[in-house]
Amino acid sequence: MTDSLDPAARLHGLLDYCRRNNGNHQLASQWGSYLQVSPDSVDYVQALAQMTLLPGQMRAAFATLTDRGVPIPFAFFLEPLPTIEKALAFGVQNQAGPVSQFVQQYSEGQVDRVLSASAILRDYAASKVSDADLLDTVEVTGTELADLLADDDTLEPDVRELLHALADGLRRSVQTYKMTGAEGVARERDLLVGRLRMNTGLSEHVRNHPKVVEVVGRFLERTTMVATFFTTAVDAGVDVQKIIQQITG
What we know:
0% strand
């Protein structure tokens, strides 16, 4: 599995997989096999959208290192990205074509350079996140939410809708993890916290259900250390702890 903090590793994984499985297979089928989602699903469409963002996320990740004064010639590692962006756009537009046509859009040397960029990003990552631990948290939370929605008929409509949205978002983040990494989980966490912060009535309703507080609070606590190279709506640690205190009263 790829490094959840590293968009370059995720991009390299896809490009390298296609080069190693080059042939006349339909590109959509090959990408679906790599992503482990059906090409006919909504999850596949979302994964493709996230795929096209990876080069930009690489640039953003390296920009943070520049801001930190890391003395590395980043331009060398970012140079292949325009070509790779065009290759991804070609692939998205030619899903019915063979994998070989997609692979012809970029070189092995460019793939190797993306891998080198990944090694740099990992070396300078502010913190590490275990993929296994993170996915376990997401999957356990999803199961707990499903049980809550099935068993508790006292939930107010806004609380039920909140839990449905969170459960659906977490399911998608697992399905598209190879493209979104920890960013997908962080985004769902941010959406949850944002809704609770902006809607005091919803927060009050959540607070009135101990089991909901338990599940939501545990999810927030266990994902506090999901640090990324990008600024998200919720600062890791401080705002999360505030929202936990808010809903637990």
